[in-house]
Amino acid sequence: MSTPKLTPMLQQFLEIKKNHTDCILFFRMGDFYEMFGDDAVIASKLLDITLTSRQKSEGNKLPMCGVPHHAAENYIAKLVKLGHKVAICDQVEDPKTAKGIVRREVVQIVTPGTLASQNALEAKTNQYIAAIVPTSDRFGLAFVDSTTGEFSAAELETKAEVVQQLWAHQIKEVIIPDREGESTAFVTELKKLFSETFFFIQPEYHFAHSYALSTLTNHFATASLHGFGLQEKKLAVQAAGGLLSYLTETQKNALRHITSLRQIRLSDALVLDQNTLSSLEILSSLRTTRKEASLLGVLDHTQTAMGGRLLKKILTRPLIDVEAITKRQDAISYFIQKETALASVREQLHTINDLERLLARLSTGKGNAIDLNALANSFTPMETLRQLALQSNVELLHTLSEKITPLPELQQAITTAIKPEPAAVTGKGNMIADGYNGDLDELRSMQNNSKEWVRNLQLQERETTGINSLKVGYNGVFGYYIEVSAASSSSVPDHYIRKQTLANAERFITPELKEYEAKILGAEERIITLENQLFQSVVDQVLGQLPQIQENAEALAYIDVLSNFAFIAQRYRYIRPEINDDKRIEIIEGRHPVVEQALGTLNFIPNDTVLDSTSEQIMMITGPNMAGKSTYIRQVALLTLLAQTGSFIPAKSATIGIVDRIFTRIGASDNVAEGQSTFMVEMFETANILNNCTDRSLLILDEIGRGTSTVDGLSIAWAILEYLHGVQDQGPRTLFATHYHELIQLADQLPRLKNYNVMVKEEGNDVIFLHKITLGGLDKSYGIHVARLAGVPKEVLERAKQILVNLEESELTPEGNVRQARRQPERDKLKQLAPPPQMDLFG
Description:
Radius of gyration: 36 Å
Helix content: 40-55%
Largest sheet: 7 strands, mixed
Distance between the termini: 81 Å
Number of strands: 27
Shape: elongated
Strand order of the largest sheet: 13-23-24-25-21-26-27
Structural class: alpha/beta
């Protein structure tokens, strides 16, 4: 039985699809992208478009659907956001000149991490893709944002460090080498932590060290990676090289905008793990999608997309170097003191477009003439910004001013070449300005004035020949011609060439007419070809200055963040904290930056904080729920973090001794899929803190032990406090909020632990929370009052009061029965807890 014969087009489709089985193939056919087979079935459901069929062979139909070419970008973005790769297969030769079926090739593979649609991207959010090379004891890690050109790599020692970096970068996609064992197991772990990130396995050879090293040195045109500080970081090289290979394979271009590879050094920044980033609501809120409910939402008044992205990085990587922090503070102080300069800087920055993404689009062949104009317009304010930074007496601003080069010649080249309002689609003409190119002007003149030219030629030939009935005409078969009546044919000049004889007339052509015909008939095509050439010439001029424009972008983003911090400090009454290398944190009248904006400055109660590793190491805060314990301890962490970014902070005054890590254990959550209860998750997080904190760390611990029975929870909380206090002269600065008021007696045994409470005012049966932290412990929880505020039925509250009296005074069970002498021995046992001396925790 013979195999049914496929059409040439379907043969072509299946051949291309064979090499892209992991993608939905968008197959260009005229004005549509078509999908066939399983791709069509999947896409029709996800995109809500009609599924039809096409005759594959006799009696055999193939599912089919399609989307218009001009609207494909939005459809592709939707599929990619749902986790699918999309291979874009375009016609790569002119159908008019093609012999047989038009040749098609995959020109790009769009993935979750390489999605570059302007409609799909958030202006102030990076589009990171990561590569991980895991081994038994170390990890190679690389990041790239193909929409900006940012490229970095690191060699890390622990899984926790990998997870922290993925979390901080808000990764969209991860690629990993195709290995059994360690690689597969690690991906499984990561998928559980990053449920909205897409993971793809890639061929192992891309990550082989020699292949990866060659990929990187070829791209950067260097003999080695010594200049990037990565030559000896074998795993980092493997991850970076594998990632660059993946990008080259999917984007099908030279990626000229990736001009550098930076090494990530964890030791350069305050470490914030995923729990801390999440529980402190640094980038987003846990409870709402409102931007202003996060620290970033309150602080982000940057004027450029580049500044907005940099601000995110700065908030997730606060500094630990006093000198570097002080330089940022000096710049912010200057802007605060020079209000006119600050206003001018922000006004000028507002006119600057996203240079990084403009360059990325232009260097990858996705840019258009509008992008060129946006780039040129962004050069205009650069000289003013450079001068404003240069005129300051601030070292950091001087350094940034030296990195700004306005490039007036390039700006002139763009504005001279490109129309003020060009077409948005490249390849359709209407991009190049009139007067820029003589040949183009002539072609346009022909196209626009062909009727006028024909009329003038007709008048000219009538006058020359004396034949008043002479006509110049055109038809689709013969093209342009000169028609003379049969009666006047004897007067035709010798240079006329007879083309056609009619019943009553003769038609002629002339060399001049044929030349014009060739020009006019090919004018539109030649206009488009010439415009594309001229456009690409301007793009090449831009890319010739690519490193300098990228340096401009980096400097302008930094100035944007610094001026933004100054603007925030003025607007919200922030002060400059003193930063030093001591192990003391002292904040006078500190305010929570996010809660203050929600409540209003007049309604927020400020509080003081004193933490010192050698004298007041642990602040234990007791008080009822809803009194503000959690807000207060988060506040201290946020102000410390903010201070180490160089920002001013909401307080009356503050001295911040550098913190190396901020750990948090806040809130209740479980992991049902892993069989982990709320308490188990709490203990995992607590164990991580105890095993990794140092005497330079800041610990924020909220209600440790509440996930289990009262006695167990109290015992664990007690033991943890003793462990943190340790046997040395200092330990991690710790804020410990608890409802276990029994713990206040520990202050008698642990000299560096101080009791504080949230003040409460009782008026009859009412309790008023004053939200003020004061010295001393609190021996009441006010839980029943909180239940009343929450709307618990009155009869439940009254019964709870009776049971509470029984439990506290009569040592009875809730049913009123005698407790059989059980409670007091437990209390006695807790009081006697005194574990043997522990190992040196902070040696």
